[in-house]
Structures are given as C-alpha cells and as structure tokens.
Amino acid sequence: MTVLVVTGTGTEIGKTVVTAAVAAAYRDRRVAVLKPAQTGLAPGEHGDAAEVVRLAGGHVTAVELARFPEPLAPATAARRAGLPPVRPYEIAEAAEKLAAEHDLVLVEGAGGLLVRFDDEGTTLADAARLLTAPVLVVTQAGLGTLNVTALTSEALRARGLECLGVVVGSMPAEPDLAARCNLSDLPVAAGAPLLGAVPAGAGALEPAVFRARAGSWLAAELGGNRPPDERLSRA
Which residue, 18, 54, 7, 40, is CA-closest to 223? Predict the structure, then answer.
C-alpha cells in the first residue's frame, strides 16, 4: 500500500483527524498527505494538510493542489472563484510523484466520494481508479451511518475500487445504543472490516499526546496496534 485514498460518507465527520492518525501511526516511515482541493479557506489560512502535519509530526510532507475560498463542493467553489478545477489526472500525477519519494501517500478527499471536482462530474473515485489505490472510508458513529456507509461502499464496488475498510471518525466517549451496535454492523454494511474508531475530540489533543495514542485507535492494516477484539478506544 503506497497510496491510500481517504474519503468520507459526508462532511465534518473526521477525515482529517483520521488521516492524521494514520500518518502518526506510520511515524517511522516517510509519509505524504495530498489534499487535492481545499475549500472554504483564504490563502495563507491553516488547511487540512497542514493540520495533518501539526498532529502527526514533521515526518509528514503536506501538498495542496488547489484552494478555493468558499466552503462549497470543489467544482462549484472553483467555478465561482473563476479558477481552474482540479482534474483526476492531476491528483494521480501528484500522488505518483510523491509515492516515488515516500513510503505512504494519503490522499484526503473533500466531502464524500462522489463530490464533483469539475463540471464534467469527475470525482475522487476517478482519481482512485487512475491510481489503482485502495480507499479508506471514514464514517460517523451514530444513527444513519449504516445507510451512507453501504451506499459509499456500493459506489466503490460499482467502479471496481477496493474498500480497504472503515474507520469511525469521531467515537463518543459514552456512545449510545446505536453507536455501540454500529461497531458490529458497520463491517456488514461496508462489506469491509472496521479498522478503527478515533475518539471524539482527538484533534484537540496536544500533538505529542495525539501521536502517542494514534496507534491504539487503528488496526494493524493502518499501522496501528488496536487488538482485533477491542471495540472502543479512549482519548
């Protein structure tokens, strides 16, 4: 696994923190994080790729291909800003270049898998297909997550893409019944293993604490050491 594409079942569900946790778990490797399209930020503001470096450490190289100021889907944000959109081949070329110099490249998408990057309707899935890269799905913990996780996984399979697994992006310290049951049901919905559960609020931890704990939130497939039978992780 040289390139791993990180997508989500929606927005604000913890993709960046999960990406940082994976990067931190691989702290003895050369890791790069590629953010194809950063939306909702002005030039010079702290973006998702920079946040991964802050949390995971200096062994991570951060690359951002494009930035659009309005918090919209990349295609819409690019069009309204009068800027060229990011194309899947540009994402693939950038990831391949980084892969030549790094042990792991994490490509973090914007929003969900099928959010449009341009007016032709291309998506992160098209970039993953060009890269023949596995996809990690970050999802929410509670009620409603099974449906959106199943839809995302079905969209991956329809495009011939591998779903490496699922990670809960923000696991409550005191999960309700739905969140507890979902830990067992998510692998069924996704047709892929549950590879981790990042505690809610993990992104607010001191970076040194975040790095020390990241491996305990993730399974071995993501560089972690979470026991297979451990259902919950604590911040």
Answer: 18
Which DSSP string do the residues of 133-191 spell out, in sequence order?
--EEEEE-SSTTHHHHHHHHHHHHHHTT--EEEEEEEEE-SS--HHHHHHHHHHHHHHT
What is the number of other CB atoms lying within 10 angstroms of the CB of residue 204?
10
Task: Spell out a b/e string for 160-174, using b for 16 or more CB atoms within 10 Å of the CB, else e.
Answer: ebebbbbbbbbbbee
Q: Could you give the 3-state DSSP secondary structure of residue 109?
A: strand
Predicted local confidence at residue 235, as pLDDT: 42
Q: Provide the residue type at 92 as one letter.
A: A
Cα–Cα distance list, 56 to 3, 59, 105 (Å):
17, 8, 14
Residue 178: Cβ within 10 Å count: 14
**pLDDT per position as a tens digit, 43-93:** 899 999 999 999 999 999 999 999 999 999 999 999 999 999 999 999 999
pLDDT score for 228: 58
Q: Which segments in the chain show pLDDT lower than 70?
A: 1, 228-235
CA-based R_g, the chain, Å: 16
Catalytic residues: 35
Tell which residue, 89, 107, 104, has the closest CA to residue 36.
Answer: 107
Tracing tokens 């659009």 back to the chain, one arrives at 68
